[in-house]
# Entry
Amino acid sequence: PEQVAHNVQEVGFGFMFAQAFHPAMKHVGPTRREIGIRTVFNILGPLTNPAHTRYQMMGVADGSLLRKMGEALLHLGCRHALIAHGEDGIDECSLSAPTRICEVRNGQELREYTITPEEVGLQRIAERDAFQGGEPQHNATMLRELLNDYIDTPATQMLCLNAGAALLASEHVSSLADGIKLARAALREGKARRKLVDVIECSQVEVG
# Structure
């Protein structure tokens, strides 16, 4: 916990692996891997965030869970959150299909709506598999390529769409379109790349 707190204070970013930071989830991990299918723990994981954040961006692979997750976050004291479900079956905002959103607003109400790539200035793509991840090394290489050189590819648009949603959830912007613009600017100006370098360097500093 001290390392994560240090990282957040120094660079504004901290990663907490559930099995390492949440005692209950630590014992669940092996069982989840053995079962090999989605279970209630896929829902409990995001809801038992040990950081007790009041602003969240969250995704669900099952659209029937959208409102349930929103109601749970309201009861947990969340002030502003976006829960997303891509209608192509992904647990994030999608470029290949409409995205259903349940938004927690002002810690008091829920708002449900649907967005499309076109209405926020992005291009729809035919296949969601264009963003398929893989082994950690492959994913790291993909991320570095996205951050190193700004090229307006489907992967870049997907990154900006979901980063924009996170910026809206954190109340850094007042609309998803503005969040996407801010994310694009961070990529173009190299701010996102520099932030990744800062995060890596800070994570290697021993604390305590």
